[in-house]
Amino acid sequence: MNKIKIGLFGFGVVGQGIFQVLSKSRNAHAEIVKICVRSNKPRSIDASYFTTDPEVILSNPEIDLIVEVIDDAAASYKIVKAALQKGIPVVSGNKAMLARHLPELIDLQKKHNVALLYDASSCGSIPVIRNLEEYYDNDLLLEVKGILNGSSNYILSRVFDHQESYDAALAQAQALGFAESDPSFDIEGYDSLFKLVIITVHALGVYVHPDRIFTYGISTIHDSDIRYAREKGVKIKLVAQVVKVSDRKFTMFVMPEFVTPGKYIYSVDDEYNGVVIRGECYDRQFMFGKGAGSLPTASSILSDIMARQHDYRYEYKKQHYLDRPEYTTDVELKVYVRYTETDVLKILHFDRITEQYRGEDGNYVIGYIRLSELLAKREVLRGKDVFMADFQSFFQELDR
Ligand SMILES: NC(=O)C1=CN([C@@H]2O[C@H](COP(=O)(O)OP(=O)(O)OC[C@H]3O[C@@H](n4cnc5c(N)ncnc54)[C@H](OP(=O)(O)O)[C@@H]3O)[C@@H](O)[C@H]2O)C=CC1
Ligand SMILES: N[C@@H](CC=O)C(=O)O
Hints:
Blueprint: E1 4-9, H1 13-24, E2 30-36, E3 50-51, H2 54-58, E4 65-68, H3 73-85, E5 90-92, H4 95-111, E6 116-117, H5 128-134, E7 141-147, H6 150-162, H7 166-175, H8 184-187, H9 190-204, E8 214-215, H10 223-232, E9 235-244, E10 249-259, E11 272-279, E12 283-290, H11 294-309, E13 326-327, E14 332-339, H12 344-347, E15 352-359, E16 362-370, H13 371-376, E17 387-391
Parallel strand pairs: 1-2, 1-4, 2-3, 4-5, 5-6, 8-10, 10-13, 10-17
Antiparallel strand pairs: 7-9, 7-11, 9-10, 11-12, 14-16, 14-17, 15-16
Helix pairs in contact: 1-11, 3-4, 4-9, 5-9, 6-7
The chain binds NADPH dihydro-nicotinamide-adenine-dinucleotide phosphate (NDP) and ligand LTNE7NMQ.
NADPH dihydro-nicotinamide-adenine-dinucleotide phosphate is lined by residues 9-15, 36-39, 41, 69-72, 75, 93-95, 120, 124, 177-178, 180-181, 292-293, 297.
């Protein structure tokens, strides 16, 4: 078997991990021949590997596979598109880019008969994309829900279980290479959102643009929210979910959730991710593993490189099913909203309020509200003095 010659884009946390795992793997008939980076800074390996000119890789006829792990979504889009247009297969970990451009990139794969693989883009080392694509190829799927972001989970674990400060935990997530270059993507929920968009394409065969999906993060979490959760014997986790709400409709959103001890994701801590896949005939299955970091992510990239040795590609079969569910935000959620100055009750129209509290360290309201209402008011809710979390809304009766 001829060795696959790889052109690598990016030599940061993930790129260096790929270099390491490839040199360890005895069965990967692949070698990195050139690495394109942004700057000319000193590197840990021979300088002759590096270039800052993408064309050195894109126009090299020897290169059979491009692996793209850079932290710039706009540049990533240009590189991946150019590669596919030239018929060069690509492995990418760039969920910010993929979530915005998947429909076009799927068309390009078909048009140029070329593959784009991206299991590392969602949940680091957990093979969630390939499983959804291959194994769950039926319409029994009811829900894919879980912790999809390692950094925010790391922060919440350190704050909840180790009484560390939020800022110290965030700095540590950055130092360990879990966080995005702009960590607001992690803590505001956008990284989870991008992964959810990609997952939904492979779970249900439907693409929903990220702008249409309600996303709320953990950046405004306060001691009083943590105290509230502790008093109730639950943990707060940043949860992303795509859920069939009827035969014909599904919903999706990202939001902190109060998670009770019986749930699989209750025990998913630190940078680990956990994904619950629920189906009509098999109840629940659970996938667990490291969701961020150099070697865990690189192991997923290695798996895609190996898959390319066998010409593997995604078929996107579910996109061609006649009966695909439609996206809706017309569902009711039970939420907790804590606030101080912002007059939340003037802004948000609850269907029904079940509890209200006013105190020195803040006020909170708990009630039922439509997801469409949250989506419409999302900008107002980004106030520094507001934090929101939901209670499990779907399949509660099955989880008792
Ligand atoms: N860290 C993680 O745990 C995971 C990350 N990912 C994704 O992988 C990608 C890389 O992440 P990570 O390794 O952490 O990021 P880093 O910031 O550690 O590294 C980014 C790399 O990209 C290079 N780069 C940036 N812009 C360009 C460009 N225009 N052309 C060529 N090279 C460029 C940088 O070059 P230079 O070295 O010169 O600065 C650097 O080598 C991101 O899309 C991220 O979302 C996915 C899963 C997990
Ligand atoms: N920043 C991301 C990295 C992996 O996707 C995370 O924390 O999960």
